[in-house]
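In this supplementary section we document a worked example of the pipeline. Step one takes a protein sequence of length 225 as its only input; no multiple sequence alignment statistics are reported here. Step two produces a three-dimensional model, which step three serialises into structure tokens for compact storage. The input and output of this example are shown verbatim.
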Amino acid sequence: MLWLWPLCLIGAMALLGHFLGPFGVLLGGIGTIGVLVLYVGSGFVRRPVQLSICAGACALLTVVYFAYVNEFPSNRTAPESPKITMADGRELSLAELRGGDARGAVLTGNRLNGLDLSRAELEGITAPGVPMKGAILDGAHLAGADLHGGDLQDVRLHRADLRGANLTGTNLSRADLTDACLRGANLTGATLDGADFRGAGVTDAAVSPAARSAARNWPASDLPC
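The serialised model returned by step three reads:
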């Protein structure tokens, strides 16, 4: 019956390799060899040695399994950092955006949904209608930015500087604007349903009473910022 074991080994390696790739081949090989030693080696190897070999095979199988689950080692390449294309054709990385290379730039046509732009230097950018849904802009510098008509639902703007920003017609539903500075910002026609303005500075901000009522924690008095 020994002639069947090579077929079992090849079959197990091929089957697991089909579903799990190289790790599956290794799993099938180690597992089949462990069983072979335990079953066939009974007449040649002492019982304690058999058990030691099987324990080692099980340990190796466990290590390989967790390595596969955690993708290590992995031949997958890291995802590329998204690039933002400016109106003049230049492409900027997120690091360059955070570093101030986009100050005053025209970013029309980009999608910034879900990007982490915390503390980014984006003063005076022109980005009308640019979707930023779920983006993280905590501490970002957006003074004088033109963001009118954009989808900023669920955006995080905690401690962001939005002085004089054009936010007309933007959708800021459920946005986090806690401790943000919106002095002189234009929120005419903006949707503020569920947006949190706790601690925000809103001196001279243009906003309708209806939008203010739809927001959460709109400051009862002007706070300095």
